[in-house]
Amino acid sequence: MSKRELKKEAILLAGMGVMKSKGYNGTSVKDIVDAAGVPKGSFYNYFASKEQFALDAIDSVAEDARAYAKQALGDENQCAVQRLRAFFSSGIDCAAGNDFKVGCFLGNMCQEMADSSDVIRARLDQILNAKTRLIAQVIEQGQAQGSLSADMPALAAAEFLFNAWEGALMRAKAAKSRQPLDAFVLMLERILS
Known about the structure:
193 residues, mainly alpha, 9 helices, 0% strand, elongated
């Protein structure tokens, strides 16, 4: 990575920490540069706008999430049911490890910005659809293996699971409790059995 890319990455990571806790609207450019320890003018050397910063933050989080999802869901040494359980279980561990304060950055951005920025909404929709398709592929593999019911449409089941998961994360954040996530797991087990 060049010096410029390293500096941009440092600003991005510092600013993402602020945006994860305060949201898009609660985060100013000043908050981002203060967190990064750089002058305000430096921000505009790397990002055309706060919206562009948010898009880069979304892409960064999505890339990490995509890499993890491919690793967890793509481990064909485990059956499809085990992969789905492990994928969602690790998400619960992450939420609990953050005391249910953070939720899903992509889900939070979607709730906050889908009506305010069409470009952010479209990027989030594309990323969330890709994640849903990964889950659908695992469901299809489970159906082919006979470990999951073949009579449920894989993509619809993946949509349901992923949307229920995002809702459970939101509720866990509101309740500061794992109870909504435990309810999700209870229903997940019924779907997977």
